[in-house]
Amino acid sequence: MPDESLLTAEIRALIGRTTPMGTVEITLRAVRRSLEVYLGAAEAERRTRDLVPGDPVAGYVIEALGSDFNVESDGNGLPSVLPNSLLISNEWQFERALRLGEHLTVASRLADISERFGGKFGYSLDFRTEVQFAAADGEVVARNARSMMQYNAAGNEGAGA
């Protein structure tokens, strides 16, 4: 555990900063992949057989786009202060249905940082990010609020278990 806070003025200055993350496309492949997780391959194929661009699709398809953007990777605006990380929470909000074939612009904003001394994980920093998905006209289609913990398990018996 550090002797003093690692939450420096430079790190606090990142709060409120927005990082553009590019664009993603709601593809038929992503829709099928997401449906396969919940319904199996045969049912996913059946439900997507007649889809055409512009058709509404289930909101959870956005998770199948995770390889196109990754808010846990470098470039997400989060400093890497401690060696280990853990997803604490992941909350979704949809303003309207996603549509097959649409392109969404993705941007991440660091909403807050807090620190904790002690506990199962020892000293930790908690980062709350808000990821926004917007249509070409700027309309916000979906939001994702995610909390990530950074911690150092070294010297903390049972940490991360």
Fold blueprint:
Layout: H1 9-12, E1 18-25, H2 28-39, H3 41-48, E2 56-57, E3 84-94, E4 98-99, E5 103-116, E6 124-134, E7 140-151
Strand content bin: 35-45%
Q: Supply the CATH superfamily name.
A: Hotdog Thioesterase
User: Could you list the spans in which at least 5 consecutive residues all have pLDDT below 50?
Assistant: 71-75
Number of separate domains: 1
Taken in chain order, the helices and strands follow as HEHHEEEEEE
| CATH level-3 fold name | Thiol Ester Dehydrase, Chain A
Q: What is the residue-averaged pLDDT?
A: 86
Percent in helix: 10-25%
Q: What is the structural class?
A: alpha+beta
N→C terminal distance: 17 Å
**Helix count?**
3
CATH architecture: Roll
Molecular shape: elongated
CATH C-level class: Alpha Beta
Estimated radius of gyration? 19 Å
> Would you count the extended β strands for me?
7
Which sequence of strands runs across the widest sheet?
A: 1-5-6-7-3
Main beta sheet strand tally, sense and closure: 5 strands, antiparallel
